[in-house]
């Protein structure tokens, strides 16, 4: 048999700490060099497709259709990979055993499963490799209905051993009467000393006291500190010593290379009193022939106008190809994806006399402590040049975010101003001018608005006295921070009325007035 050796090898290293969701991916490529002919395994044309799943519930384990492997030649290895949290696995011949890899042949079938995204209208893609052939399987969750609630509070990210930790959680919704449930999504509870309480009024609290000696760094993935060796000589030994660091020294680390070629292995050993990892293997020898450019060059360009030339090439060994260019400074080689394949382009704009662009958006000039600030940037250019924004000066909490909205690029200034800690003060009645007279048998209404100089405080208004018959009191909650006395009094008389506004610390202010019903 003749075994094919891929010219450029894509290797994925995964560091798994104590918590699997903290895996850190590290990718690099190894160039191939010309060597001698080694036996190669012929591969017949083979294609396999898994049907994409749409309109799926969020955070739900789903399975693909079964596909036949009848186009394979001999026994090969199959692998599946997907974003963290998807838990992508495969099963052979409809069996109950699920794993991220399997040994398969042309007589068998393959089925996939993974967990859908926790977000609505979100697509997760799993990459499946069977021998030398690759395909993808996608799952898309159902679209969300309505506008989701948002968090108004900023998390407290550190705690002191032996001292109380408190994070008061505040949320918001565009539906005033909505019932919001605040829960811990992942992990369920990161530390045993933490206590979570949902108050049921759009607020919650995460609190506790970390015991002395419990200091750790949670949620920080381990990191590679070494630079990969990205080339190997045909038929020579390849070595790459891995340097890995982890902020939490108590974590147990593992290193895997699920997409490495069959001749490359992860070796675990010791260096002094510590574990050490190394990628090690002997590369097979092959004889390489140079690839050829098969596309026809676009030989003209207009000043100030975008130039695009899509490149194509062929290689007798079907090696993965890369393109480079020697040309003017304004032209670059850009690599992207089309369906499941790479696409290379020469792209650039020939220089011309340039006119400075101008801003067309009006900046948002105010921000609130602890509340997300957003300003969508927009600009115009008379020459229709590609615009790029940069933040030259601003507060440390403000960042420039570059993304997409639909198929268009979107630039935003975004950040959360830090909350200025001020001493607790009693909440007050900011609007309280009720009518002091009414008429029996006629409708009466008085609205009261409260305020608190501590934005994160939770306020509540309560009635301290008895109302005249026919009138009722209603507290609208911390979100609206208003209260209402309304109804139709049934009898004449004079009544003293007292309202009280209280924050979660027990500090309060009273408001009293006399109501005369004629």
Report Rg: 33 Å
What does the main sheet amount to? 5 strands, mixed
Count all strands and give the number.
39
Shape: elongated
> Unreliable stretches, pLDDT < 50, 5 or more residues?
1-44
Into how many domains do the coordinates divide?
4
In percent, how much strand structure appears in the residues?
Answer: 35-45%
Report mean pLDDT, rounded to a whole number.
80
Number of helices: 1
> What structural category arises from helix and sheet content?
mainly beta
Helix content: under 10%
Biggest sheet, spatial arrangement of strands: 3-11-10-6-8
Description:
- The chain is mainly beta.
- It has four domains: 1-146 and 232-287, no CATH class; 292-348, no CATH class; 358-415, no CATH class; 428-517, Immunoglobulins (Immunoglobulin-like, Sandwich), CATH 2.60.40.10.
- Helix content is 1%, strand content 41%.
- It contains one helix and 39 strands.
- It has one helix at residues 477-480, and strands at residues 9-16, 24-30, 53-56, 61-63, 67-68, 76-81, 89-92, 101-104, 109-115, 123-130, 133-141, 150-151, 165-172, 195-198, 203-208, 223-224, 237-242, 244-245, 254-256, 264-271, 274-282, 292-293, 307-311, 313-314, 331-338, 341-348, 358-359, 373-377, 379-380, 399-405, 408-415, 428-432, 437-438, 444-451, 459-463, 471-475, 482-487, 493-503, 508-517.
- Strands 3-11-10-6-8 form a five-stranded mixed sheet, with no helix packed on it. Strands 4, 5, 7 and 9 form a four-stranded antiparallel sheet that branches.
- Strand 14 (195-198) and strand 15 (203-208) form a beta hairpin.
- It is elongated.
- The termini are far apart.
- 14% of the residues are buried.
